[in-house]
From TrEMBL:
Pfam families xrefs: Glyoxal_oxid_N
Domain Glyoxal oxidase N-terminal: 86-464
Record has Signal as a keyword: yes
Entry keyword set: Signal
Signal peptide interval: 1-25
SUPFAM superfamilies xref list: Galactose oxidase, central domain
UniProt name for this protein: Glyoxal oxidase N-terminal domain-containing protein
């Protein structure tokens, strides 16, 4: 096992210097995409497969592969030598089969995002563990039954593939990060923000890591004041790169615009009504940038919990506390003020918002009571700190009049409780991939487990799914910033027999991103 790990880390060391300077081959012209090969009933969920490991984290790596990362636990698939449970898989969305992948350190609550060259990062985690999530006697990765190393300083890299030969490789950073946030910057590099050192329900001053750093490294971590002022519910801070080039950061009740180039923090008003970061875990998203809004970024936040800083303790029944239903938004590059939006029909913690190609937002997963997290306390539901799953999805239309932006028209319920550690992403055919849920310290299944470790994969089919798709010719295999123009042609059939409809044709680009913990 030790030799396998050494070789993987060596491969990373050899590639770092060229990570962002590699030149991709000239893009090729793609054939027309064709119609979806899969059929699905619009407005419904379908259980299509088994994820192999529970999907605490996931991302769409290429046209037909979703990569799933779990925490170290006793998942059924085995991998490596000596053999041990896998906590990562590559899932083929065409065959609904998975390939187990070996991750050598504990990726529990790691952060993730994609570099400008297409390499995915998975950063941080927690100590090596043994049965039941207990800390292992050795942190070196050579101890049964899980053979996992300490993941607190880990940086894991993956170049997605089609040939089933790609694997995670690892390097390290200088500081421990559990629940960090990663944001891709305009030059294709990565900023890594926050986290804490050793775990726990919420953050604390004694183990806080109120800093940021870059990958590839630009030097030692740098202090970030908002992470000092917003304890304790400030893990997985919510961030977006704005068109201005600054970062928007929202964590606990605090909000700011951050100029990372000059290390300047511009404090804004606290977010109203509720905490949206973990473990309140409200849903959040950047609404579509369109010609109509002049490519202006508006951030929408819904749900979470209105708990105050002194209420994030485990001596009372948090699992019975109602989740928040409010929605608020801000357009920070225009007017850095919060405004109320239409509320959800019920409170929801741990919901996921997914951008759809029709410009609407799909919301799925989560619970009506409690917050994210698990533990062995008397009021937990099994081990879950939340209860009352929200099986009903809902769709938000940013262009609808106020008071009518949320709708469930034509939507069926899921049959799977998606609680803590569930995730979702849009797929290239326009369906939504939904999986995960595991509010347990380790693999935990059985008829008497209300919220078990969940492996079932669902696909949700939006209202447009069965409609004829246009067949554009001239699309390129890769798109970058700037460069030469290229022509895309549509047929008369693509325009439903009316060539004049070309005047209203739209091109929609969606970056699915990294899904974990309602992000």
């Amino acid at each position: 096992m030790k030799s396998i790990r050494a070789s993987r880390r060596g491969a990373v060391a050899l590639s770092l210097s060229a990570l962002l300077t590699s030149v991709a081959a000239d893009p090729t012209v793609l054939p027309a995409p064709g119609q979806p090969t899969k059929t699905g009933t619009p407005g419904t969920f379908e259980i299509v497969g088994d994820s192999g490991v529970s999907a605490q984290q996931l991302f769409l790596g290429n046209d037909n592969r979703v990569y799933i990362v779990d925490k170290t636990e006793n998942n059924p698939p085995k991998v490596g030598s000596p053999a041990h449970p896998a906590w990562a898989t590559e899932y083929d969305v065409e065959t609904n089969k998975f390939r187990a992948m070996d991750v050598v350190t504990n990726s529990f609550c790691a952060g993730g995002a994609v570099l400008g060259n297409g390499t995915w990062l998975n950063v941080g985690g927690n100590q090596a563990i043994t049965w039941g999530g207990l800390t292992a006697s050795s942190q070196s990765g050579n101890t049964a039954p899980y053979y996992n190393g300490d993941g607190g300083k880990a940086i894991r890299l993956l170049d997605p593939c089609q040939d089933k030969k790609c694997n995670w490789v690892e390097t390290t950073m200088s500081t421990r990060r559990w629940y960090p946030t990663l944001e891709t910057l305009e030059d294709g590099s990565m900023i890594i923000i926050g986290g804490n050192q050793w775990g726990g329900f919420v953050n604390s001053a004694g183990q806080n890591n109120p800093t940021y750093e870059f990958f590839p490294s630009k030097g030692d971590p740098i202090g970030l004041n908002i992470l000092t002022k917003t304890l304790p519910a400030n893990l997985f801070p919510l961030t977006w790169l704005l068109p201005s080039g600054n970062l928007f950061i929202q964590t606990n009740w605090g909000t700011e615009v951050f100029d990372y180039k000059t290390n300047t923090e511009y404090e804004l008003d606290d977010i109203p009504h509720a905490v949206r970061t973990y473990p309140a875990s409200g849903a959040s998203i950047m609404l579509p940038l369109t010609p109509a809004n002049n490519w202006t970024a508006t951030l929408l936040f819904c749900g979470g919990s209105d708990l105050q800083p002194d209420q994030w303790v485990e001596n009372w029944a948090i699992s019975a506390y109602p989740a928040d239903a409010t929605c608020v938004k801000m357009t920070p590059d225009v007017e850095a003020k919060w405004s109320d939006d239409d509320s959800l029909p019920e409170g929801r913690s741990m919901g996921n918002m997914i951008a759809l190609p029709d410009g609407k937002i799909f919301m799925v997963n989560g619970a009506n009571q409690g917050v994210a997290g698990y533990g062995n306390v008397s009021w937990a539901i099994g081990q879950s700190y939340a209860d009352t799953p929200v099986y009903k999805p809902i769709i938000y239309d940013p262009n609808a009049p106020a008071g009518s932006r949320w709708s469930r028209a034509g939507l069926s319920d899921s049959t799977v409780a998606r609680m803590y550690h569930s995730s979702a992403t849009i797929l290239p055919d326009g369906s939504v991939f939904v999986t995960g849920s595991n509010p347990n310290a380790d693999y935990n299944v059985g008829n008497n487990i209300k919220y078990p470790t969940e492996y079932r994969v669902e696909r949700f089919y939006p209202s447009y799914y069965s409609q004829r798709r246009p067949q554009p010719n001239g699309l390129l295999s890769e798109l970058g910033y700037g460069g030469n123009y290229f022509n895309v042609t549509l047929s008369k059939d693509d325009l439903f027999g009316n060539v004049s409809m070309i005047a209203t044709a739209k091109v929609v680009l969606i970056r699915p991103g990294f899904s974990t913990h309602a992000m």
